[in-house]
Design goal:
By secondary structure, this protein is α/β, with parallel strands linked by helices. It contains 14 helices and 14 strands.
Length: 412
């Protein structure tokens, strides 16, 4: 069978959707299927096209997966006009390139956000004779409203109409969290849904990795390192970590290390300078293959949200648990339920800087506490969030015959 993935984000870019979708593609290839990915020229999160890429279209191959890349106007700006220009440039180029160059497909999965990619996904699915799977990793436009990116008005109403159109036209709507799936089922009870949970490669991320004396550049021997690795964006609310660090100056061997990039990084670095935070370090993004050792080099991991967003579950919580590291979670809702159920680490409400500082003190003071929390998280990651099991169950689900399934398309 032929399976297509339409996504604005894909390796060599770093990030949660990039890792998740590339592992789905690899699993399909391992099961003997043909996979083609239609994606943008890599530019995330810096807002600049990577060296060696550019132009209108290009083909490449990664581990048996054919990849068609098309033009995008890259932008790191948080401004609505430039962000929309970036989104719509890829919607347009992917539709043209996909129409001309993609083969006939059995399935086409479209990744959202950006929600606008549903326009290209729907049309391409019809042109290529594919059953359309609309994968929702964040609820838009609802999350955009809560973050203040979109206000009440015509733009919001148009986005809501596009959201409804995508759900109602899809052959299957998949959601990355229980909250996303429940929200869609409540508002659109006739839409077929599937909980395609995020997860982690538990063989790749594990607590027994050799890290060496240098601790992957995170810090000096004897320091207690709390690591945040990921996007420095609006939704993460990383300024909370800086405000907490200002209350922890007396902990001489405690450090908060932030690895990554994003539209908020420059402002965060400037704020850390203003507060004269010697206990905070900013490091450049690391290649995806270094992340398992990076987590294993830390004493604790941090997952942080500016506020509790509907259905949002940071993917880094699964990697931290698989790595056997205690997780300091700044979030409510479903992420808090997962971490609390595992007993994997302290949970702090977004905006509770004093509570965040207290949690850091508790973790820094007790290696035994850190060890116990890490072991509990590892246990849950192995039992419930192993990505290979999750993907195999999804592919088996697609292969089950239904009233709408065409003969001869069952996945093996």
């Amino acid at each position: 069978m032929r399976f297509g993935l339409l996504t604005q984000y894909y390796p060599p870019e770093l990030g949660a959707p990039q890792a998740r979708l590339s592992e789905l593609a690899a699993r399909l290839v391992a099961r003997g299927h043909e996979v083609v990915v239609l994606t943008a020229m890599p530019n995330y999160p810096g807002g600049e096209i990577y060296p060696g890429y550019g132009g209108l279209v290009r083909w490449e191959e990664q581990t048996g997966v054919r990849i068609l890349r098309s033009f995008i106007y890259p932008s790191q700006s948080l401004g609505l006009v430039k962000r929309m220009a970036s989104y719509l440039s890829f919607v347009s180029s992917s539709l043209v390139a996909g129409s001309l160059l993609l083969p006939r497909l059995d399935f086409l999965m479209t990744e959202s956000p950006p929600l606008f990619l549903g326009i290209s996904g729907f049309l391409l699915s019809r042109l290529k004779g594919a059953r359309w799977i609309f994968n929702v990793s964040d609820l838009w436009p609802e999350s955009a409203v809560r973050l203040g990116v979109v206000g009440e008005g015509r733009a919001l109403r148009l986005a809501q109409r596009l959201e409804a159109f995508c759900y109602q036209k899809a052959w299957l709507v998949t959601g990355q969290s229980r909250g996303i799936v429940e929200d869609i089922r409540r508002r659109f009870p006739a839409v077929p849904t599937y909980h395609l949970s995020n997860g982690v490669d538990t063989q790749l991320f594990r607590p027994d990795l050799e890290v060496g004396e240098g601790r992957c550049g995170l810090g000096e021997p004897g320091e207690c390192i709390a690591l945040y690795a990921g996007l420095h964006g609006l939704a993460q609310g990383l300024e909370q970590l800086l405000e907490a660090a200002a209350r922890l100056r007396d902990l001489e061997r405690f450090r908060i290390v932030l690895v990554g990039d994003g539209p908020e990084k420059r402002r965060l670095v400037q704020r850390a300078r203003e507060l004269e935070l010697a206990n905070v370090r900013f490091l450049d993004p690391r290649p995806r293959e270094e992340m398992p050792r990076l987590l294993a080099s830390a004493d604790a991991a941090i997952a942080c949200l500016k506020e509790t967003l509907p259905g949002a579950v940071p993917s880094k919580i699964y990697e931290a648990m698989a790595a056997g590291r205690p997780l300091l979670l700044v979030a409510g809702g479903e992420p808090a339920e997962i971490v609390r159920g595992a007993g994997a680490g302290p949970i702090v409400d977004p905006g509770d800087v004093e509570g965040l500082a207290r949690a850091c003190r508790e973790l820094a003071a007790s290696p035994a506490l850190r060890s116990g929390l890490g072991a509990a998280g590892r246990k849950l990651a192995e039992s419930d969030y192993d990505r290979r099991r999750i993907l195999d169950a999804f592919l088996d689900h697609l292969g089950r015959p239904t009233a709408e399934s065409a003969p001869g398309t069952k996945l093996e």
